[in-house]
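C-alpha cells for chain A. Residues wanted.
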C-alpha cells in the first residue's frame, strides 16, 4: 500500500486571507472582490460622470508632464489615464486590466502608472506573475522616481519592493 502526502506552506495563503479580511467592515473588500470576479453583470460599465478629460483638466500634480516625459504611446497613455480616472472616481469602485501580447509595453505602462499613483501619494499594491516581472516593474518605477528626486535617494524609503 502506498500513501502520498502533499505538503505546502500556508503562510502565503494566510497572508492573502488576512489582507482580504483586514478591515472590520468587510463590505468594501467584498465589493472589490465581486468587481474583480464580475459577479454583477452591470459592473462592466464605466462611471458616466467621470471622464479622462475631466481628470486631465483637474490635474494638480502635473501628471501630464510626467506622461510626456515617459515616452508612452497613445494607447499606453490612455491606459494610464483610464486607471487614474478610475482611482479618482468617487461614484463606483473599478478594476482595470492592462493586458497585451509580449513586447507591447505593459511593463513600461505599469511602471508609469505606479509613478503617477506615487505622485498622487496613493498607496499601491502591485502583483506580477513571476519574480522577474516584479523586478522589472520595480526597476522601471524606481528609475522614474530617482529621475524626479532632488537629493539622490531621499524619498525612496517610502517604496517597498
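Reply:
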Amino acid at each position: 500500500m502506498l500513501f502520498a502526502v502533499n505538503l505546502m506552506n500556508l503562510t502565503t495563503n494566510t497572508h492573502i486571507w488576512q489582507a482580504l479580511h483586514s478591515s472590520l467592515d468587510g463590505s468594501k473588500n467584498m465589493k472589490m472582490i465581486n468587481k474583480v470576479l464580475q459577479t454583477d453583470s452591470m459592473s462592466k460599465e464605466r462611471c458616466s460622470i467621470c471622464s479622462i478629460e475631466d481628470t486631465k483638466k483637474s490635474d494638480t500634480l502635473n501628471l501630464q508632464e510626467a506622461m510626456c516625459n515617459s515616452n508612452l504611446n497613445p494607447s499606453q497613455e490612455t491606459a494610464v489615464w483610464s486607471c487614474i480616472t478610475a482611482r479618482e472616481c468617487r461614484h463606483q469602485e473599478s478594476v482595470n486590466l492592462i493586458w497585451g501580447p509580449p513586447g507591447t509595453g505593459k511593463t513600461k505602462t505599469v511602471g508609469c502608472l505606479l509613478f503617477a499613483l506615487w505622485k498622487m501619494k496613493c498607496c499601491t499594491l502591485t502583483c506580477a506573475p513571476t519574480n522577474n516581472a516584479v523586478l522589472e516593474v520595480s526597476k522601471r518605477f524606481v528609475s522614474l522616481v530617482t529621475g524626479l528626486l532632488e537629493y539622490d535617494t531621499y524619498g525612496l524609503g517610502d517604496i517597498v519592493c
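The radius of gyration is 19 Å. Residues 50 and 89 are 6 Å apart (CA to CA).
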